[in-house]
């Protein structure tokens, strides 16, 4: 799994999988046409979506292993590295992949919206697990794109191809929303663990030594990517992960402010603020009063 293959163009990836290049910027790749291979890591210079039909080894993103099974949809953005760890065994790839270059979508509705599809930034344990019905919808989207590619390039093809990719992205958004609910056994207790993590953090000396807890740090402690973690918290609570952390911070601050043996600057330092004025500004924004005003109101 140490070898690295680099694919900067769609045609390079098509050639690797014995597929014809019908369009230089987009392809529906039939992975069953590829030669049998052993596992390797791959760098992609374009967007790529894998729909695998068989479990042929551990799907790896970067250095992490996907929560991967048959029928799993894996979505990668340009510049990401993924691959299969087959433990040295030869396997026959099966399934389909949608590959499209960023140049295809520049100046289109999809190009303007592509940053909305945060699932391209999800990492280990965060792939999209499809029901049979959802899988058929994905294959139908792929089929429509491939139909346009078979017809050849004309004045309508780019618009129709991009529109179908955008439709596919919207379906993926719906499927992930469903997964946040139906795979609750996977996410069970994430918010409780997040809450406990923050309680332990603020109950230790970490705020004074490390500073305020960052979203990325919290996500790492919970074995999730920052983007997936943020989306999960937002869907479950209606707050961003940063807002959730700030709400916990304010709750802790309110308790500490009532300790008359400490001045406001000490409270700020204990909570992880390097500059007390930053604490005062955040507290005023969230509570409507400065820390000193709040202490006076409650005394």
UniProtKB/TrEMBL annotation:
InterPro entries in the record: Homeodomain-like_sf, HTH_AraC, Tscrpt_reg_AraC-type_HTH
PROSITE patterns: HTH_ARAC_FAMILY_2
SMART domains: HTH_ARAC
One of the record's GO molecular function terms: DNA-binding transcription factor activity
Keyword Transcription in record: yes
Keywords, alphabetical: DNA-binding, Transcription, Transcription regulation
Positions of the HTH araC/xylS-type domain: 219-297
Record has Transcription as a keyword: yes
Entry protein name: Helix-turn-helix domain-containing protein
Record organism: Mucilaginibacter gossypiicola
